[in-house]
Specification:
Strands 1-6-2-3-4-5 form a six-stranded antiparallel β-sheet, with no helix packed on it. A three-stranded antiparallel β-sheet has the order 9-8-10, with helices on one face. The protein is mostly beta strands and about 140 residues long. The protein contains one helix and eleven strands; from the N terminus they run E-E-E-E-E-E-E-E-E-H-E-E. Bound molecules: zinc ion. The site of zinc ion has 7 residues, from helix 1.
């Protein structure tokens, strides 16, 4: 029997079989990397075919059986929880510590940082993403 669950891209492990764009692929290796906008991306290498870069919080469909390294989590999985609102991002100037909340619009980073740099000459920024996750148990038979 094969069951499918969703797991954050950042939590994928070698051996996981995933369904991406309708194709089943087996993961050979994973690592974390930074993306140009300051967030984290999971770099996923498969047993065959090209590797893939996904935002760390992307939910990926994982096909059971769960590899031994993930059995510890049992039937628990972690999901993005948007009931309290979408993920938000804050950016801070590393020189004067002025902050700006961009909400869920990634383009707002540029529309705040670039004018700030032009006005002050400050060129370094730190960005922080805030989102909510919820651990859930897969429904099972009633005992
Ligand atoms: Zn500044």
């Amino acid at each position: 029997m094969s069951t499918e669950r969703h797991r954050l891209a950042v939590l994928l492990v070698p051996g996981d079989r995933v369904t991406i764009d309708g194709h089943r692929r087996q993961i050979k290796a994973t690592r974390l990397d930074r993306c140009a906008t300051g967030g984290s991306v999971a770099v996923i290498t498969f047993q065959s075919g090209p590797s893939l870069r996904l935002p760390a919080a992307t939910l990926v469909q994982v096909v059971a059986p769960v590899p031994a390294s993930a059995v510890w989590f049992g039937d628990w999985s972690l999901r993005e929880d948007v009931s309290g609102g979408p993920p938000t991002r804050e950016v801070m100037c590393t020189t004067c510590h002025e902050r700006y909340e961009t909400g869920d619009d990634p383009a707002a980073l540029t529309t705040w940082c670039v004018p700030h740099a032009g006005r002050t000459g400050h060129t370094g920024f730190r960005t922080t993403a805030t989102g909510f996750l919820r651990a859930v148990v897969r429904p099972g038979p009633v005992r």
